[in-house]
Automatic annotation (TrEMBL):
Pfam family for this entry, one: ParA
Function: Binds and transfers iron-sulfur (Fe-S) clusters to target apoproteins. Can hydrolyze ATP.
Name of this protein: Iron-sulfur cluster carrier protein
Quaternary organization: Homodimer.
Length: 321
């Protein structure tokens, strides 16, 4: 292997395939470094590391690095429901963690202006995101970069905001410094209000995941949320049935107080993919309340969320292709 091709391989692994093939002419080595999505510090550090490597190659007297940055096409995945309390926040948090486990660079936005729950779910209550050049810098919760309205207001402070303020806060979180995140999971407030409209009109989600419980009423509400996004031509990723059947804390057996299969057939009628069935489980609730989402663990409660993340990743990969 020549010194140059060895360098090329080293740089590829050092930067995560962000460098072009290096060229050497009259002692001057040139290459292109793609710094898309990197924060300034990371950009500088990466360019320095590349230069150091390049200078160590025999025959290299000077190094010229051309940095390019594209605005990344960051896919927004909204997690929505027609009705409150069906588990959007639980599903969003665990979906984000499970996608990260599958190697997707993911960020989480809690757009529930009126009842933010991600700081508790991801054990980041009381943290304050910093801003740099007027851009918010996400914090980390359970290993995932995240921003929540709950971080931007005092705990317990009543948020009696008007629509435009809520929409503005949403915009600041979406446009935060997500660095190289490919996907933003957005935990939506329930229903079809100002935040939903702003999301649809301004931020153009790549797709939406609808969460519903098995009861008929919740499914009717789910239809309402589906209609809102469909009218706006936001692609449907599919339906998640949450609190589907009760997982016995003693033996793990699943019983179905509300009957089973309702959400799956409703998804079929609405022409939507059925993504996952997540049981009603005391362990899921206690883990969530404790700020240790089940998807972060390896127990049986992680499985339905991993399955969900797999389906969502497939959908995103297909969209990319
Ligand atoms: N599969 C589940 N098993 C047990 N408890 C669950 C499950 N999913 C959600 N919960 C619990 O149900 C409650 C509501 O869930 P969550 O906050 O995720 O719903 P939501 O749709 O985001 O609600 P809101 O509309 O108020 O934002 C929480 O206490 C949560 O821990
Ligand atoms: Mg919620």
């Amino acid at each position: 292997m020549t010194d140059l091709s060895a360098l090329s391989q080293r740089l590829a692994s050092l930067t995560g395939n962000r460098t072009s093939t290096p060229r050497l002419r009259d002692g001057v080595l040139t290459l292109v470094l793609d710094v898309s999505g990197l924060a300034r510090d990371a950009r500088v550090a990466m360019a320095e590391a590349v230069e150091r490597e390049a200078r160590a190659v025999p025959g290299v007297e000077d190094v010229r690095i051309a940095q390019t940055a594209e605005k990344r096409d960051r896919a927004i995945v909204a997690v929505a429901s027609g009705k409150g309390g069906v588990g959007k926040s639980t599903v969003s948090a665990n979906l984000a963690i499970a996608l990260a486990k599958l190697g997707v660079r993911v960020g989480l936005v809690d757009a529930d202006i009126y009842g933010p729950s991600q700081p508790r779910l991801l054990a980041s209550e009381g943290e304050k995101p910093q801003a740099e050049e007027k851009q918010l810098i996400p914090i980390r919760g359970a290993g995932v970069p995240m921003l929540s309205m709950g971080h931007l207001v005092q705990p317990g402070q009543a948020i009696a905001w008007r629509g435009p303020m809520a929409a503005n806060a949403l915009g600041q979180m979406i446009d935060a410094r997500w660095d190289d995140a490919e996907v933003l999971i957005v935990d939506m407030p329930p229903g079809t209000g100002d935040v939903q409209l702003s999301m649809i009109q301004k931020h153009k989600p790549a797709g939406v995941v609808i969460v519903s419980t098995p009861q008929d009423l919740a499914l009717i509400d789910a239809t309402r949320a589906v209609n809102l996004f469909e009218q706006a031509h936001v692609p449907m990723i599919g339906l998640v049935e949450n609190m589907a059947g009760y997982a016995c804390p003693h033996c793990g057996e699943i019983s179905d107080p509300f009957g089973s299969g309702g959400a799956e057939s409703a998804a079929g009628v609405m022409g939507m993919a059925f993504l996952a069935r997540i049981p009603l489980s005391i362990a899921i609730r206690t883990a969530s309340d404790a700020g240790t989402p089940p998807a972060a663990g390896t127990g049986p409660d992680a499985e339905p969320f991993m399955a969900l993340a797999g389906r969502v990743k497939e959908w995103l990969d297909r969209r990319q292709a």
